[in-house]
Amino acid sequence: MNTPTILVVEDDLPVRNLIVTTLKTHNYRYLTAPRGEDAVMQASSHNPDVVFLDLGLPDMDGIDVIRQIRSWSNMPIIIISARSEDNDKIEALDAGADDYLTKPFSVEELLARLRVTIRRLSLMQNSPKDSSVYLNGRLKIDYAAGCASLGEDELKLTPIEFKLLTVLAKNTGKVLTHTYITQNIWGRSWDNDIASLRVYMATLRKKLECTPDSPQYIQTHIGIGYRMLKVE
Ligand code: CA
Asked: Which pLDDT belongs to residue 128?
């Protein structure tokens, strides 16, 4: 992948400057937009690799920026939110955002999120769309055969655990909300399903993770959802 171009959508000048300086220092290319309307225009005319998007913009809600971009592009969007309420993040993730940063954030955190996203991007570009086998660290999933293994050992998964693993694997690097996951597994999302999800996640982790208390593959986002990480 060539030097990635990052679109920074942020009306708060000090925050925008911090992000731009960080990107410059680490040799990323960047574009900036202080308003939602500019963001949508820049996204469509320059086709950036990743978008950092502040949710609180002066002219429109960041969620609407996500919806507009998602109507024609899958470019990764990382939300930057000053709001501590999980509901805003959940709404943005369900609208199609990939990840989130909560203000105030550290430069290290920003760079880490960017690396995860770019890794996910190159993963998508390098793997054929119809690939029926998924590889991640020691984990291998054969979608067509409906089985998964860790190294040499086949994982003895129940159908729901397998479905759960598949939903996460197909979105490696992306934070998935509880609602998104339960809808993909059961076709609906009730409070009960979210409670069941926790139980299935615990049993899946026992089989998948060497140390379920410090998981290597599936990351928990408390109050929000889960993310499959790319393991080296
Ligand atoms: Ca703002």
From this structure: 58
Mean pLDDT for the chain overall? 91
Return the pLDDT at 210. 87
Under the banding of pLDDT at 50, 70 and 90, the label for residue 13 is very high
Domain boundary among 97, 126, 155: 126
**How many Å apart are CA 201 and CA 220, to the nearest integer?**
10
Residue that terminates a domain, selected from 126, 161, 181: 126
Ligand 1 centroid, distance to 14 Cα (angstroms): 11
Distance 3 CA to ligand 1 centre (A): 27
- Average pLDDT of the residues in 37-66: 96
Instruction: Give the position of tokens 């290290």.
Output: 108
186 burial (CB, 10 Å; 0-12 / 13-18 / 19+) is middle
- pLDDT tens digit string along 76-124? 999 998 767 778 889 999 999 999 999 889 999 999 999 988 888 877 7
Report the CATH number at residue 175: 1.10.10.10
CA–centroid distance, 78 to ligand 1, in Å, is 14
Confidence (pLDDT) at 58: 96
Query: What angle is formed at CA 63 by the lines to CA 57 and CA 69, rounded to 5 degrees?
Result: 100
Give distance in angstroms: CA of 9 to centre of ligand 1. Answer: 9
**d(CA 12, ligand 1 centre) in Å:** 5
Distance (angstroms) between ligand 1 centre and the Cα of 31 equals 17
Query: Cα of 4 to ligand 1 centre, how many Å?
Result: 24
Supply the DSSP string of 78-97, one letter for each residue: EEEES---HHHHHHHHHTT-
